[in-house]
Amino acid sequence: MTWKVEDLNRRLLRARDAMDRAYAEPLDVRTVAAVACLSKAQFIRSFRACFGETPHRYLQRRRVERAMFMLRETERSVTNVCYEVGFTSLGTFSRTFRAIVGETPSEYRLAHEPIEAPHCFQMAATRPRLAAGGEVQSSSFGEASAAKVP
Amino acid sequence: MITKLNVTSIYVLDKDKALDFYVNILGLEKGNDVRQGTYRWLTVRVPGDVTEISLEVPGPPLHDEATAAQLRELITKGAMSGLVFVADDVRSLYQTLRTRGLTDFTQEPTDHFYGTDMGVRDPFGNAIRILQQAKVAQAARSVEPST
Fold first, then answer.
1. By residue range, what is the domain housing residue A92?
2. Interface check A135 vs B, CB under 8 A
């Protein structure tokens, strides 16, 4: 029996794990694709087929989820949170956050309190779904064209 | 009254590879390894613990091939449920796992109010979390009133 699909899935999962681990660093899509032993184009296509969204979108939701956590659980400034989770521009961060969460980072902070559940369950449960409106262009991932600085 | 969790199971793609990972890398011990015809009842457990973790491969007679293929896809996508263990020293275990050649970490040791945890994946994609409970959290739990 050949497990071609399984092998590809497992490699894509390894790349996704790498994004989960290194979300705060400036990530380049080619580097992440290399974790899955794929070219950039193959990686984006296969990742989307496997997980239902592009690697770029996945990374954005990862970063925004971490930002939500920091806004909820810490006193750090919005600017500090923005850079801590891997965004390189405050404008891009605010726009992406709002597009995904439906609130600005400051509004989110005011409306949400710390959650008392184990961290891994929080991370899974609070990972934002994307609000209506389709693709959000931003972040330093290099897959979407570079973010427009306002 | 139910008194303990006796067996839980986890889907893997290959029982020998799974046994090698769970025993030789993660440090669990082999529980049962019994063959009956083509079936192999294979379990691992935390050393000294009573709960057996049965390592199951999707396939006949429980699943037809199409179902087994779906399960294999889900396992390797990391979409199945995983396991959460408790360890006495997560940072030292992290170093040990690295020494044993493990590279599939989903999260390096991280501190939370309830303790320190880390995440790894087994060779097939199952998520495993390992938690070192904070002393404060342990103490709080022991004085919580039972309801």
1. 59-131
2. no
